[in-house]
Design a protein that fits this description.
The chain is an alpha/beta fold. The chain has 2 domains: about 5-165 and about 280-385, Aminopeptidase; about 165-275, Alpha-Beta Plaits. Helix content is about 40%, strand content about 20%. The strands form 4 sheets. It has a 6-stranded mixed β-sheet with strand order 1-2-4-3-5-13, with helices on both faces. A 4-stranded antiparallel β-sheet has the order 9-10-8-11, with helices on one face. It is elongated and about 80 Å long. The mean pLDDT is about 95.
Amino acid sequence: MASALHDRAASVVATHRTELLELSHQLHRDPELSFEEHRSAAAVAALLEQAGFSVVRQAYGLDTAFTATAGHGAFHVGVFAEYDALPGVGHACGHNVIAAAAVGAALALADVADDADLTVVVLGTPAEERGGGKILMAERGALDSLHAAVMVHPWPTERLEATCLAVDQFDVTFTGLEAHAAAAPWEGTNAADAMVVAQVALGLLRQQLQPGDLVHGIVTDGGAAANVIPGSVTGSFMVRAPRADRLADVRRRVEACFAAGALATGCTVEIVDLAPAYSHMVSDPDLLAAYRRSAEALGRHFDLDDAGAPKPMISTDMANVSLAVPSIHPMLKVEAHGAVNHQPDFAAACASDSADLAVTDGAVAMAWTVLEVVGDPGVRARLLERGPQRTN
């Protein structure tokens, strides 16, 4: 695998190590939520612009999206950066690491773009956690020129793939009528009871869902005072399924549970989608094999994959990208001492020495992956011929 281009790419990442780690730590110190990542997007885009990339801010009609382009080659590779955080626990999914690794890979590939006949496009994608920024960008043409797409994602273990479940995200609001809970409760229509009925129905439904079908949610507004019959109650819910074509059926059964709550209590119910549906993911086998060789050359190991351990179950809007463009989304180990994604301790781990190594290893591994596939005449020809593919 080793070549002069590989060595140059790794050298570029090493040269920019201090800037990449400062970017990761800056994002980690200042977490911003979906579609509100103004400072984060600006910091990532600025570093690329300083390196000579042509940057378009507020790309595809999204305030916190951007594109950054370098090179003029025939093969267009998209390197995806995420930078949104989670409410309450900050960067407990490590998107600061994702963004910094993406910048590192892009800088490395830009340096060799002329020799490898590459055009490098960094896509700064908001709202992976809640909002589906990549899907919105794709609908507006962001993937149209790409022949391949790469990103890495922090995880407590090294894994080549996760099982990406298709997911719908939505808010549910029951509306009834307030009344004094002691003096005249019969004058009220209890929206909290409607939510309870719906949650009980969901609990009973779970025993008959197929493996991989999941429903979970929280009540975000359950009323204002114990002595007032709640006239409005809202919850936020997610429905998941192994494939996009199963998701619609599970969603239909879940919506019936909310309808039951409304019917039983006399409330009305409104369901508002928070994002386009996330799909299942299909990894490109040649890209994935190249990534494995690249990561192993850096000293990383995939023992769990080799042992046939169950894949992690996640959902990501990168999955939708994979149905349109040959893509990978491997899981990059960050030592978290038993913590898992979306826990406070994992957020802390994403600013550790192990996370810093993940930034530089992830950057080099992605750059080497791209160089390997564009250097293989057969794979390059396949990806160039196929180009971006749309799956509706």
